[in-house]
Amino acid sequence: MAASLEKEQQRNQVIGIIEEEKLQKQESKGSNKITRTQVESGEGEREMTPTAANSMHRSGSRPQLDVSKAEIQGNEEEKYPTILLPNQSDDLSHLALDIGGSLIKLVYFSRHEDQSVDDKRKRSVKERLGFSKGNRRSYPILGGRLHFVKFETRKINECLDFIHSKQLHCGGLEPCYSDGVTDQNGIIKATGGGAYKYADLFKERLGVSLDKEDEMDCLVAGANFLLKAIRHEAFTHMEGQKEFVQIEPNDLFPYLLVNIGSGVSMIKVDGDGKFERISGTNVGGGTYWGLGRLLTKCKSFDELLELSQKGDNRSMDMLVGDIYGGLDYSKIGLSASTIASSFGKTISEKKELEEYRPEDISLSLLRMISYNIGQIAYLNALRFRLKRIFFGGFFIRGHAYTMDTISFAVHFWSNGEAQAMFLRHEGFLGALGAFMSYEKHGLDDLMVHQLVERFPMGAPYTGGKIHGPPLGNLNEKASDRDWKFLIYAGGLISWMEKFLRKGTEITAPVPMTPLAGTTGLGGFEVPLSKGSTLRSDASALSVGVLHLVPTLEVFPLLADPKLYEPNTIDLSDNNELEYWLTILSEHLSDLVDKAVASEGGTDDAKRRGDAFARAFSAHLARLMEEPSAYGKLGLANLLEMREECLREFHFVDAYRSIKQRENEASLAVLPDLLVELDSMDEESRLLTLIEGVLAANIFDWGSRACVDLYHKGTIIEIYRMSRNKMRRPWRVDDFDDFKERMLGTKNNKNTRHKRALLFVDNSGADIVLGMLPLARELLRRGTEVVLVANSLPALNDVTAMELPDIIAEAAKHCDILRRAAEVGGLLVDAMINTSNSSIENSSSVPLMVVENGCGSPCIDLRQVSSELAAAAKDADLLILEGMGRALHTNLNARFKCDALKVNDVDFDFCLHPSIASMFPIMPTISYWHSLSIVSLELAMVKNQRLAEKLVKGDIYDCICKYEPVS
Ligand SMILES: Nc1ncnc2c1ncn2[C@@H]1O[C@H](COP(=O)(O)OP(=O)(O)OP(=O)(O)O)[C@@H](O)[C@H]1O
Ligand SMILES: CC(C)(CO)[C@@H](O)C(=O)NCCC(=O)O
Ligand SMILES: [Mn+2]
């Protein structure tokens, strides 16, 4: 009863919105009242320019934004003011379809509320730094997520159910009434033959019209978008080796696009919207699947492909050797193992179909078709002198052997001149292109740094909504079947329940990469069937959800964003990967304990903790088997995945209570520390401050060795112990040079820095006793300080949200901090003692807090928050603290201003050979000299065995490295 009442209310709301919008439209026809808003939002174009040739067609086809009550936010004089759409549903979704002969591909967009609240801190930062988000566009930016899903065309009903269950056909407005009531959002972009064939079915079942977009247009638009906007979208695949390539957007054209769907289209692409379909072949994916099904009685495409992995085509194919009595035909370059005639061997034998192994049939067929397509592609590339060939379409299905075969053909016939490349979103080109044909999505001018790809780590849907593929896909093949189950169960059974049931079945997935030896001159060897099972559906996990975050920006102080590589460690080295995967898996149980405790240790929390552990281990196992399963992976991505996985299992902040406890304990001793510091002269104070940063950075819950320490002593004991160990000279000790830059020499007083950005790391002692006192020193010297902290929790890192309270507490004991925080607008709410007796100079530089835009212990400076980007504009000193931000990432980053990197190096994360080796042999990073960069490396080594072995030092050794401008 209650439910139906609620439904009715919602329905009235929806109708209310629609009615209101109609009203607004009528109004706008009669007067110019809201035209500005309309023009800015893109909606106005339709109303204002009815004469434009195709405006009728195009405007009608666009899912509409609800612009009722729209108002300009912020300054009217701004060139591109942000428009607030109070009535626009946050869940506005757009859906586009590519309905092919074999598969239906869906790309849909879901908008998610900006989780960060627009709090006082944010507003004051905005005021002070003078920026407003989203000033790049003249219409509201659609931040949200792009999801990729596919269904078999023969099971179109499942697709319709899916769309219906998620209300994708009506812009995500909930609830949507397809039974008779069709709202104005009932138009969906669609491409592929099915856009024609199934138009009536969509109308009938969902009440929507399909707006047809040309298939070739869409393929090209999708490919161009992916190649320009997604980092490492393309890769080569030769002899089992996958290598990601980054192509410069201005060096992309011309190329040949070969889309291997049911049939094959070959398109010469010369630019955006500039292309020609130069060829095609009817021998394609449909041929393999169709013939294969008839010949092997396989029930699914994957089953057929899986069979091929155990096949030996020599029983089917006639080889050169079969014809030449075992000899090569070397005169024309054919080895005995070259296939002379696919399936040719079967003519000379008196065997019936049943007497052949289905495995061999499948392999023979796969090779015949892949090789043929590769060869035709090559010939067409030759016709137009195209060097690059990109292969898309779901025939490829991320299957190593298929890609190797195609690559071999291209390489062999072109003598290495042409290169075959594959796309991670292989089969979604057309659907993406259709999606992009909605105007004013702004998708076409989204830039690389505004897209973040995330893999659903275990939670197929949260809050009752499906966000990604179901869990079963981790090692289950029947993805489509699962979808159905989940849709119907959606809301009734939580995904967690399902996971817990499924969890026991999750095992390390089986590899599908045949290793070396697949190809050889003039022919192929039999694939090494290392694994007998085919990996779960490629689209399920090889392609993540694309998060569109229009507010992300490239950190403006990067010397050269093109050369910037955040990850210090290259995980494409298998030993590295193995080392880090092991570390993460060893940390897991400890992390789960923390996570469960953070949620009060309830039964529910325990179950989720258990599920999280299983999901994350499964991902680690998967990566161990197939390192490039998630595209090009850096350590930063790996660490972020862990945090994301926690969040998916609803662990908002696993270290919450630890952080709180440590903050309190540290704040309690802060006054004493400040008194101690104030009694020192400038020089010893600076040294003590740097020691303090190093010592306090010992509180790192990412490190095993440190975690063990915490069980043995109080925070303050450990901190004191840590500081007492700071005996100089440190293992590497350039402190004096740094001091000179800060304090100058007797004859030469150095100028102060204008603004320092301090990238802070952990909560507790690290921030309170380490970084805050350092910030205070800079403030005292007249340098503005911006504390840069995480947007979301990660390990025990302090977040931007938490900082104002910590600062307010600290400010109670310190006038310098208090004034600066006041000026920086951080103390609006805080109840602090306002007696300003002893400080004579009332003009203070501000202390500010900005969020960095990420939720991981590492930071990719190509994708930072607009706050940080704005704060960076006037900064002339950078201090990067902690191993995540200054070591795992950004160790090699080059900046446009002075940079000070403060790392502690701890056992688990940092003393891996690759990193440790950077410290004893400092010249390896000597190229810093060539830039105007001042950097200081401060490191503490926290493992005896490794310290001895690798740095020839002792546990808790410190490294302080400073490089002055040359
Ligand atoms: N789960 C699957 N079910 C069916 N076919 C699959 C599957 N996975 C991969 N394939 C292969 O992918 C092909 C379809 O690829 P794709 O979706 O790119 O083409 P399509 O759009 O359906 O076809 P066309 O563009 O020719 O109309 C199939 O013919 C088959 O070879
Ligand atoms: C007919 C299409 C374009 C449908 O996607 C595709 O299946 C295809 O390109 N087939 C090959 C037709 C040919 O050029 O021989
Ligand atoms: Mn197609």
UniProtKB/TrEMBL annotation:
<comment type="pathway">
    <text>Cofactor biosynthesis; coenzyme A biosynthesis; CoA from (R)-pantothenate: step 1/5.</text>
</comment>
<keyword id="KW-0418">Kinase</keyword>
<keyword id="KW-0173">Coenzyme A biosynthesis</keyword>
<dbReference type="GO" id="GO:0005634">
    <property type="term" value="C:nucleus"/>
</dbReference>
<dbReference type="Pfam" id="PF03630">
    <property type="entry name" value="Fumble"/>
</dbReference>
<keyword id="KW-0533">Nickel</keyword>
<keyword id="KW-0808">Transferase</keyword>
<feature type="compositionally biased region" description="Basic and acidic residues">
    <location>
        <begin position="19"/>
        <end position="30"/>
    </location>
</feature>
<dbReference type="GO" id="GO:0004594">
    <property type="term" value="F:pantothenate kinase activity"/>
</dbReference>
<feature type="domain" description="Damage-control phosphatase ARMT1-like metal-binding">
    <location>
        <begin position="606"/>
        <end position="950"/>
    </location>
</feature>
<dbReference type="GO" id="GO:0005524">
    <property type="term" value="F:ATP binding"/>
</dbReference>
<dbReference type="InterPro" id="IPR036075">
    <property type="entry name" value="ARMT-1-like_metal-bd_sf"/>
</dbReference>
<keyword id="KW-0464">Manganese</keyword>
<feature type="region of interest" description="Disordered">
    <location>
        <begin position="1"/>
        <end position="67"/>
    </location>
</feature>
<comment type="similarity">
    <text>In the C-terminal section; belongs to the damage-control phosphatase family. Phosphopantetheine phosphatase II subfamily.</text>
</comment>
<comment type="similarity">
    <text>Belongs to the type II pantothenate kinase family.</text>
</comment>
<feature type="compositionally biased region" description="Basic and acidic residues">
    <location>
        <begin position="1"/>
        <end position="10"/>
    </location>
</feature>
<feature type="compositionally biased region" description="Polar residues">
    <location>
        <begin position="51"/>
        <end position="62"/>
    </location>
</feature>
<dbReference type="Pfam" id="PF01937">
    <property type="entry name" value="ARMT1-like_dom"/>
</dbReference>
<dbReference type="GO" id="GO:0016787">
    <property type="term" value="F:hydrolase activity"/>
</dbReference>
<feature type="compositionally biased region" description="Polar residues">
    <location>
        <begin position="31"/>
        <end position="40"/>
    </location>
</feature>
<keyword id="KW-0067">ATP-binding</keyword>
<dbReference type="InterPro" id="IPR002791">
    <property type="entry name" value="ARMT1-like_metal-bd"/>
</dbReference>
<dbReference type="GO" id="GO:0005829">
    <property type="term" value="C:cytosol"/>
</dbReference>
<dbReference type="GO" id="GO:0046872">
    <property type="term" value="F:metal ion binding"/>
</dbReference>
<protein>
    <recommendedName>
        <fullName>Pantothenate kinase 2</fullName>
        <ecNumber>2.7.1.33</ecNumber>
    </recommendedName>
</protein>
<dbReference type="GO" id="GO:0015937">
    <property type="term" value="P:coenzyme A biosynthetic process"/>
</dbReference>
<dbReference type="InterPro" id="IPR035073">
    <property type="entry name" value="At2g17340_3_helix_bundle"/>
</dbReference>
<keyword id="KW-0479">Metal-binding</keyword>
<dbReference type="InterPro" id="IPR004567">
    <property type="entry name" value="Type_II_PanK"/>
</dbReference>
<keyword id="KW-0378">Hydrolase</keyword>
<comment type="function">
    <text>Catalyzes the phosphorylation of pantothenate the first step in CoA biosynthesis. May play a role in the physiological regulation of the intracellular CoA concentration. Functionally redudant with PANK1. The phosphatase activity shows preference for normal or oxidatively damaged intermediates of 4'-phosphopantetheine, which provides strong indirect evidence that the phosphatase activity pre-empts damage in the CoA pathway. Hydrolyzing excess 4'-phosphopantetheine could constitute a directed overflow mechanism to prevent its oxidation to the S-sulfonate, sulfonate, or other forms.</text>
</comment>
<dbReference type="InterPro" id="IPR015844">
    <property type="entry name" value="PanK_long"/>
</dbReference>
<keyword id="KW-0547">Nucleotide-binding</keyword>
<dbReference type="InterPro" id="IPR043129">
    <property type="entry name" value="ATPase_NBD"/>
</dbReference>
